[in-house]
Amino acid sequence: MIRRVPAESFMDLSKRVPVIDVRSPGEYLRGHIPGAVNIPLFSDVQRAVVGAVYTHQGRAEAAAKALELVAPDLEGKLKKALGYTAKGEILLYCWRGGMRSESMAWMFSLAGLKPCVLEGGYKAFRNMALTSLSEKRKYIVLGGLTGSGKTKILNHFSSSGHQVVDLEGLACHKGSAFGSLGMPGQPTTEHFANTLFSQLSLMESDIPVWVEDESRNIGTVFLPDPFFCQIHEAPVIALMMPVEVRLPRLIEEYTSFPKERIIASLERITKRLGGDNTRKAVEAVSCNDFATAIRIVLEYYDRTYRYGLSQRREGQVTVVETDTDSVEINAVRIIEAASSLV
Q1: Average pLDDT for residues 135-160, to the nearest whole number?
Q2: What average pLDDT is seen over the chain?
Q3: Where is pLDDT greater, at 186 or 341?
Q4: In the predicted model, what is the mean pLDDT of residues 222-238?
Q5: Domain boundaries in the chain?
Q6: Is there a catalytic annotation at residue 229?
Q7: Which of 60, 97, 174, 177 could disulfide-pair with 121, CB 3.0 to 4.6 Å?
Q8: Cα 61 from Cα 80, distance rounded (Å)
Q9: CATH superfamily, with its number, for domain 137-339
Q10: 39-93 residue pLDDT tens
């Protein structure tokens, strides 16, 4: 008899027991339980074939076709599973906790493993994750002008024991037109929500969570609506820093990338910068005058961000003025400002 557990118990077990996603590689890439490894029962093509047989010929014929397709590689799947578990315990899930996870669990149990299947499958996990992201939490939003070192400050908070979620880190994007530079490929919106839920589930619900001020999307990733609404209404600590103080950080951060990639990013925001400003910025980059290009871009981003702050409700934004780029000094000033919110 294969043991089946609900999503909450499954996630508790996953803290110490390896998790195997037996869905197809395409399903796994769209979104999976964070930390799970993919040992698919079917490839994407095989899944489509079995599905077609089921639709046109019935369950028995589909089961026979499935056995025909997967039989040659069952040994390989078992060896992979054995490589992930030291004590024989293993957690499995498919889309709805049906045939695929039960079939793999049966095979693994024959080899002496102790499999446990997620009741309701990945669908049950997703429902739990989205429900959790809808629940009210205490958030404090760290805002500020582009180049203020907000991510470094949040990292400093995290190392100092504060609860922090790095949304841009989860999204693999820095949030601006230049945000993809130096970053790995972005996850899907679905998987971003999964990792966001996974991080928040480890945090104390009665202690504020720090997040960076973001728009509804970070690159191609969209924040879950209920979560976005909460951080949009949360108190904001906005770090305001002169351009001269921000320039060295931005020059250091972006001049390491190929000029053609920086120019391509500039050209993507031509409508927002204006044709003349874009041309001047491109010419500046071509001549290694990065300071001029950055000043042109900051004029647009600063104006846009200040306008966004002005649209927040009265009393929502606390401004922290600073004339230093020191992460430690600015972190102290921000924490002092946040103390009045508690």
Answers
A1: 95
A2: 93
A3: 186
A4: 96
A5: 3-129, 137-339
A6: no
A7: 97
A8: 28
A9: P-loop containing nucleotide triphosphate hydrolases (3.40.50.300)
A10: 999 999 999 998 899 899 988 898 898 889 888 888 999 999 999 987 899 999 9
Catalytic-role residue among 94, 172, 229, 287 = 94
- Render pLDDT for 158-181 as a digit per residue (tens, 0 to 9): 999 999 999 999 999 988 888 888
- Mean pLDDT throughout 243-265? 90
For 3-129, give the CATH class: alpha beta
